[in-house]
Design a protein that fits this description.
By secondary structure, this protein is of the alpha+beta class. It is built from seven helices and eight strands, in the order αααβαββββββααβα.
């Protein structure tokens, strides 16, 4: 009787089993991610404690200062300052049969805005909470935008620390963004400026080792 029941399961039963398994796999991955994040935070705090203990040693003070400077330039430290927060979203109620393809945010749109901010003086940028570095990786796989291989979903948030007026003017006066936000295309763009903006270090959000494994010291 057991064998007969197994062969007579419907597609719906199989789908339910697959969904349950996928849900369990997702929960396991989320739990593992929380553990890894907790371990990373602990290591970051330990590193800061160790570095702060070296300040009293005059013999290595210059080395520590140089290390901190390089870490800051590489995006491996948390930073704060005045900045701008941009929110980009697809056209409301987007219809692929009636609306232009530009009504959906693509990786080219995200990269355009990021480059616009860099060129207008941004000192540090994060995309959906992930710090961007010299090896930034934002691309599309089908309709999905990936950042360092991780799937991102709209609305897309780009945070940048830098000169407020210059960055705001660059965004508000940009002809391409004006084109995207016109009614017929309908891309939604939100702009918020703030005197205090915090951007996390890359090491708090991603493992940087895979992105420098092709680099060698001369």
């Amino acid at each position: 009787m057991v064998k007969q029941w197994a062969f007579e399961r419907t597609d719906g039963d199989i789908n339910i089993i697959a969904i349950r398994q996928a849900k369990q796999d997702l929960e396991d991955e989320e739990a593992q991610n929380k553990v890894l994040q907790s371990q990373n935070f602990t290591l970051e705090d330990r590193k800061k404690t160790l570095l702060s203990g070296f300040n009293d040693d005059t013999d290595i003070g210059e080395i520590i200062a140089e290390l901190r400077k390089n870490a800051l330039l590489a995006g491996m430290t948390d930073v704060s300052g005045s900045g701008i927060i941009l929110t980009l979203d697809d056209k409301l109620n987007y219809d692929p049969l009636a609306d232009p393809i530009e009504s959906v945010i693509h990786d080219s749109t995200i990269n355009y805005v990021i480059n616009l901010l860099w060129s207008s003086g941004a000192r540090a940028i994060a995309f959906n909470g992930v710090r961007l570095t010299a090896v930034s990786e934002i691309n599309c796989v089908g309709p999905t935008i990936l950042c360092y291989g991780v799937r991102q979903m709209p609305p897309y948030v780009i945070s940048a620390i830098g000169p407020l007026e210059t960055m705001s003017l660059a965004v508000e006066s940009d002809s391409y963004l004006a084109h995207l936000t016109q009614k017929i295309i309908g891309v939604r763009l939100g702009i918020v400026t703030t005197e205090i903006l915090e951007i996390p270090s890359f090491s708090r959000t991603r493992d940087f080792i895979p992105y420098i494994d092709l680099l060698w010291m001369p």
